[in-house]
Design brief:
protein C-terminal S-isoprenylcysteine carboxyl O-methyltransferase activity; transmembrane; about 180 residues; methyltransferase; ICMT_MeTrfase; transmembrane helix; 2 strands; two-stranded antiparallel ribbon; 5 helices
């Protein structure tokens, strides 16, 4: 029974990721058509590799090391559910601006609704929580530790790149606004 639950849960999460990638592609096409530009292409492949390694490591640890859910499995399950809520709140708040890539529309104002009223990068908080909680839910503490540390490093790179891209888009917006006034 435990194997079925693990595969059902893993299938659910992987299906979510495939749907989210399709949404991201649609949003990217829409934003690009409006003049948006992509930043951070150099590190994106490492984020993709990290997420692939995450799922491979999770499966390997659960099956080869025969990990079992801990007695306190409800704590990571609750945190996972909260992270899901946060992630979908982020996605709906950003609308067409949500993406797995850094795609910035020059002249667009920063989104300040939903969780973005409280945090600068709430979507990344959801990702951090998921990459920690999913393995802990099944007792895969090695995956939780190693991939969470790698994820934090990559997110530190990504956030710097994203902030620079947003600053550049904002400064080009200010330049456009100033030129229109002259």
């Amino acid at each position: 029974m435990g194997v079925l639950i693990f595969f059902a849960f893993l299938s659910f999460v992987l299906t979510q990721r495939v749907v989210e990638l399709a949404i991201a592609r649609r949003n990217a096409r829409q934003m690009t058509a409006m003049g948006a530009v992509e930043a951070g292409q150099d590190h994106y492949k490492y984020l993709v590799a990290l997420h692939i390694c995450f799922f491979a490591s999770l499966m390997a640890e659960v099956f080869w090391l025969e990990r079992k859910p801990p007695q306190w499995w409800m704590a990571p399950a609750a945190a996972f559910i909260l992270a899901q809520g946060l992630r979908y709140w982020c996605m709906t708040s950003l609308g067409p601006f949500w993406n797995t890539r850094i795609i910035v529309l020059p002249g667009a104002k920063a989104v300040r609704r939903g969780p973005y009223r409280f945090l600068r990068h709430p979507n990344y908080l959801a990702v951090v929580a998921e990459l920690l909680c999913i393995p802990l839910l099944f007792g895969a503490w090695v995956t939780a530790a190693i991939l969470s540390v790698a994820n934090l490093y990559l997110l530190s790179v990504r956030i710097r790149v994203e902030e620079a891209a947003l600053d550049e888009a904002h400064s080009s917006s200010s330049t456009l606004t100033r030129s229109k006034r002259l």
